[in-house]
Design brief:
The chain is of the alpha/beta class. The chain folds into 2 domains: about 240 residues, Spore Coat Polysaccharide Biosynthesis Protein SpsA, Chain A, CATH 3.90.550.10; about 70 residues. About 50% of the residues lie in helices and about 20% in strands. The protein has 10 helices and 9 strands. A 9-stranded mixed β-sheet has the order 7-5-6-4-1-2-3-8-9, with helices on both faces. Strand 1, helix 1 and strand 2 form a beta-alpha-beta unit. Helix 1 runs parallel beside helix 2 and helix 5 packs parallel to helix 8. The longest helix is centred in the C-terminal third of the chain and has 33 residues. It starts with a strand and ends with a strand. Bound molecules: uridine-5'-diphosphate and magnesium ion. Magnesium ion binds next to loops.
């Protein structure tokens, strides 16, 4: 039985990478299956990414294009791609060829042999900078400690998902699309293929450390409530110390008379607890902010146009 493969391709200012991507990926896909589609999401690019995609579509009719009304971020773009993909399996990929298309035949084979999810696992991060390696390692450690859900280390969005997995992922209603977590939440039987992640073929990464930090915060707060408990535990610990300290003062006053307490120790205790309280409030604020955003039910993405065989008119769609 020939099964259809869908590639989901988020593109943001990727004008330089697009032609190269299709040149490499189309022969690979044709060798694996006679039926495939590539759902490209133009995530509000400011360059000629959309025109480049349309030019490619003239050559390869398997290309579908979803044009967003503005930039919504990679996770929103992947959500749209997954929503519109019609294949029996879906593979999200980066357009910069950092997800090697040569892995696709092996992933499809493992899928046909019965795996529901095939994860591409980075075997070494030697190309990453020192700081990136450390922070990435730290993120997985902290996330997996805090959250009941465990996300596999060094696995990105590049993976093959069977239709039943895709349908589960589609059913998650949340606005904060921390895809690494959502994809892991679906569960199912996973197989792995190892690879060495090449550096970007063209252009520049869209991530910087501030974005990565916020992404990590989104991830942790979407999947764990542990940070909310930190203040409770801190409260208990400091209360115990405070009681001991009070007992000591009472003892001293009763047996040695009244002492004049030191100003520096008073000041440092006040400052310390001021800090602890502000941090606790901040943590609560992070969660309330996210509840606020979720409760508004704003769309994850807004589509300006879909370029597809069935639907090539200008439409305004949103999810
Ligand atoms: N991307 C996107 N919207 C964004 C940022 C990135 O659709 O706001 C796409 C980008 O075009 C690429 C993929 O997401 O296909 C991965 O981006 P990038 O290569 O910058 O991330 P990295 O590989 O450095 O993690
Ligand atoms: Mg990349």
């Amino acid at each position: 039985m020939n099964r259809k493969i869908s590639i989901v391709l988020p593109c943001y200012n990727e004008s330089e990478s697009i032609d190269n991507f299709f040149e490499v990926v189309i022969p690979v896909l044709s060798s694996v299956s006679s039926e495939f589609e590539i759902v490209c999401i133009n995530d509000g690019s400011r360059d000629d990414t959309f025109e480049k995609l349309k030019a490619q579509r003239k050559k390869f009719s398997q290309i579908k294009i979803i044009d967003f009304s503005k930039n919504f971020g990679k996770d929103a773009a992947m959500t749209a791609g997954i929503d519109f993909a019609t294949g029996d399996c879906v593979i999200p990929m980066d357009v910069d060829l950092q997800d090697p298309p040569e892995l696709i035949p092996e992933m499809v084979k493992l899928w046909k042999d019965g795996a529901d999810v095939v994860l591409a696992k980075r075997e070494d991060r030697s190309d990453d900078t020192f700081v990136k390696k450390i922070t990435a390692g730290l993120f997985y450690k902290v996330f997996n400690k805090l959250s009941d859900l465990k996300i596999p280390e060094n696995v990105g969005d590049f993976r093959l998902m069977d239709r039943k997995v895709v349908d589960v992922v589609k059913s998650f209603p949340e606005r904060t699309r921390f895809m690494k977590g959502l994809l892991a939440l679906a569960g199912f039987k996973a197989a792995y293929v190892g690879y060495k992640r090449p550096s970007r073929a063209h252009g520049q990464s869209k991530w910087n450390y501030w974005k990565l930090w916020n992404y990590a915060l989104d991830g942790v707060t979407s999947f764990s409530t542990f940070p909310l408990k930190i203040s409770t535990y801190l409260g208990f610990i400091t209360t115990i110390f405070a009681c001991l300290y009070i007992a000591k003062i009472v003892f001293k006053v009763l047996f040695y008379g009244i002492d004049v307490p030191g100003y520096p120790s008073l000041m440092s205790v006040i400052l310390f607890f001021g800090g602890v309280q502000l941090i606790s409030l901040g943590i609560i604020g992070e969660y309330i902010g996210r509840i606020f955003i979720e409760s508004k039910h704003r769309p994850i993405y807004v589509i300006r146009e879909i370029v597809d065989d069935k639907n090539s008119s200008d439409v305004l769609l949103q999810k």
